[in-house]
């Protein structure tokens, strides 16, 4: 009964189908792991990005993560409501707001990282360290190719 | 200016971050490729799944693709409005509706496949056939691990 989760072989098998399926599966597992912190699968990526890049504007965050403005705004509102993120006027230009982690935000980040690591480790079963490094390298190449494609279209 | 699209190295680099970023990039490229057919990046996966598995109910489609009911219903409504998909009462149980491709649907499928292949080929640049096969194998392992995780939780 579990083979239906695999993309259909032979027809159009490609990394793209696997990536879509893996993405959706991971979002489901991550949701479950982060439920105790009331952080959804659509929000953790913003929390982690703010942790690394704060202070950052909502616009820059949306562009860096390639996630549209509306989705970004909703995620930030949710993270703010949960007390993990706060907004502050940009001292250099008060038309803009900068996003920061709150103290609760700083406290929850390592827990989110541990949860993400748990999901990561579960998905690595049967893959050696060498294979894993190669997988990450190949994915990095795919991502670079995609970034270049988009730049060519601009 | 393009390195901001890469996940931050060192901090929490993992295949999961690459997969999320690749997934979002691919959705953007696929959207652009499929715009002439008025098929969105959220819809082609349903069109292709119906092509392979028709006749299929909306519920089964949602379960197979791991996409929630509401998103599935919206995508099917859109594909139906564009004339690519039709619903028909299940002859064995008329409480259920089965989804089929229309003639336009059957005609557009090879064009969608070509568009997906174009995206796939663009992302393979600099990856040899051997490396690509290994990438697909490793992704298949990751997906199988994820499927097993979910079954354990049931």
Q: What topology emerges from the helices and strands here?
A:
Two copies of one chain form a homodimer.
Chain A: H1 15-34, H2 44-53, E1 56-57, H3 58-65, H4 69-81, E2 85-90, E3 93-101, H5 103-123, H6 129-153
Antiparallel strand pairs in A: 1-3, 2-3
Please tag this protein with its features.
homodimer; mainly alpha; Arc Repressor Mutant, subunit A; 3-stranded antiparallel beta sheet; 6 helices; disordered N terminus
Walkthrough of the structure:
2 copies of one chain form a homodimer. Chain A is mainly alpha-helical and 154 residues long. Chain A has one domain (14-136): Arc Repressor Mutant, subunit A, CATH 1.10.10.10. Helices cover 63% and strands 11% of the residues of chain A. Chain A has 6 helices and 3 strands; from the N terminus they run ααβααββαα. In chain A, strands 1-3-2 form a 3-stranded antiparallel beta sheet. In chain A, helix 2 crosses helix 5 (103-123). Residues 1-12 of chain A have low confidence and may be disordered.
Précis, in short:
Two copies of one chain form a homodimer. Chain A has 154 residues and is mostly helical.
Helix content estimate of chain A? 55-70%
Number of helices of chain A: 6
Q: Please report the two chains with the greatest interface, counting residues with C-beta closer than 8 angstroms to the partner's C-beta.
A: A-B, 61 and 61 residues
Which residues of chain A form runs of ≥5 with pLDDT under 50? Answer: 1-12
CATH topology-level name of chain A: Arc Repressor Mutant, subunit A
Name given to the CATH homologous superfamily of chain A? Winged helix-like DNA-binding domain superfamily/Winged helix DNA-binding domain
Strand arrangement within the widest β-sheet of chain A reads 1-3-2
What's the β-strand tally of chain A? 3
Shape of chain A: globular
Number of separate domains of chain A: 1
């Amino acid at each position: 009964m579990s083979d239906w989760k695999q993309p259909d072989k032979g027809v159009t098998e490609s990394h793209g189908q696997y990536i879509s399926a893996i993405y959706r599966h991971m979002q489901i597992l991550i949701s479950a792991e982060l439920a105790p912190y009331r952080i959804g699968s659509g929000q953790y990526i913003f929390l982690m990005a703010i942790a690394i890049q704060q202070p950052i504007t909502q616009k820059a965050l949306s562009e860096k993560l390639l996630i549209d403005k509306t989705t970004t705004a909703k995620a930030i509102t949710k993270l703010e409501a949960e007390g993990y993120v706060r907004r502050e006027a940009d001292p250099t230009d008060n038309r803009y707001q900068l996003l920061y982690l709150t103290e609760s935000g700083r406290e929850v980040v390592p827990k989110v990282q541990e949860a993400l690591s748990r999901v990561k480790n579960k998905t690595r079963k049967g893959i050696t360290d060498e294979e894993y490094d190669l997988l990450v390298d190949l994915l990095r190449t795919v991502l670079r190719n995609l970034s270049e494609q988009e730049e060519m279209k601009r």
